Amino acid sequence: MSLDDLRVHTAVVDVPYLPRPTKEREVCEHLRARRPVLIVGPSMVGKTRLAAVAVRQVLPDTPLLLPDSPTALGDLDKADITPDQHVIWLDDLDRFLINGGLTAGLIQRLQTSNWIVATLRGHEWDRLQPTDQLRSPEWDVLRLFQLVLLDRDRDRPTDEDLRCAVPDEDIRARIARTGIGEYVGAAQHVRDQLTVAESANPLGYALVAGVADWSRMGLTRAVPAELLPRLAKARLTGRRRDELDNDEKYRAALDWAAREINPTVSLLEPADGTYRVYDLVLDHLATATDRTVPATTWQLAIDEAAADELTAVGYQAAMIHELPDIAGAAWQKAADAGNLDAMSNLGVLLKEWGDTVEAERWWRQAANAGHLLAMSNLGALLQERGDIAEAEHWYRQAANAGHLFAMHNLGVLLQERGDIAEAEHWYRQAANAGHLFAMHNLGVLLQERGDIAEAEHWCHQAANAGHRDAMFNLGVLLQERGATVEAEHWWRQAANAGQPEAMHNLGVLLHERGDTAEAEHWWYQAANVS
């Protein structure tokens, strides 16, 4: 099996692999424990090569299974064929999340007798992050993976390793400026082409930018050739837009966009009547001055996308581009077509707009069809208006099916009515599965009944993961046992995150030791926040 087969970007400059020992150990530990592992990082940072090295170290004689289409693994599952004792290789995981190709249940079935290794570009990871009420349809799959983050700056090779691998001082200097992966993968060539083309070849640039817009709207399938002019026209004005109707000029622009910059790279990658944009182009355009996807392009996506794609388009519009009206249009169309994720997300948007009647209608429809997040959201709406019995019903439905937010919300409901033992049970269930609010609430519950050591454990878990109220409560627990230095650390963390009680307590601690000026600063901050 070659590196090309594994979809490692072919280098245009021959530079030996430079080890990343810390990250290699991290990936290897997950493989040895047979945990699905997902390596996330920017394009050309070395994700796929790192995965290949780790697999070679831990499972050198294990056969690899490389699905040849987004639905290949699902098709095997439907035929009741389960791979056994294979490394399942999912480079660019987002390719396999379209059209229901991979599901959470399928990943769980596969991992019992296989090793699953995946990579994902950082901007894809960012766009798929959930909130407590909104969730991309892909998140159920992503949350099953152990995350390994590969950072372009923090995980650079050491100067000594680079010196040994690359004797040429000029090449080392270029690598220092652009990064090892970017240098060997022609990143600078890509940036230069795009920078020049924006003014020198506006039609070609518009074709590339249009395909990038398609991806930035959350659409993961390749762009059909017939949509290229429509996507590009949204990036042009006046006479330039009309020029795309000229076959000769259009063909020249497309030839430029799809031509090879070098033997391994082109800005647009053609395949079977469709086009994809080279991933480094996406990274470059994400930092461009105008990152706004044109309104006509959003409408084109809504017109052309299937129901499951519309759910992703709406999520991208709402969470990344802050365009709730577009999200609403996408989710409405998908919900009308019966998509449960869209129904749930549309309910969130409607509630934010104050239309709780319609929000409840969509949540009920999705909940009755078995959608767990919709059950949790419906329960929260019912609890807000005082329908506690029915709220509990829906929380229990979702919690018993494993939904973490519902477990937490059920715990809150039970604690509020005094059923502490069962509240603790649900908090523990959710906390053990990584729910931050449940960790914090469990810590507070334990603190109130005097189980200080375990309370500190859970507050520490949540604080380390960024929960600001947990930081404050951890500081209280630490101060009470005399660990003032640690208490100050956590109160500072919480205060810097905007937690007013931590600001107040930090001010008291500073005042008591004579730091009056800083104490007054934090008290002033607390007064303005409260």
From TrEMBL:
Alphabetized Pfam families for the sequence: Sel1 (PF08238), TPR_10 (PF13374)
Cleaved signal peptide residues: none
Domain of life: Bacteria
The protein, known as: Sel1 repeat family protein
Source species: Amycolatopsis acidiphila
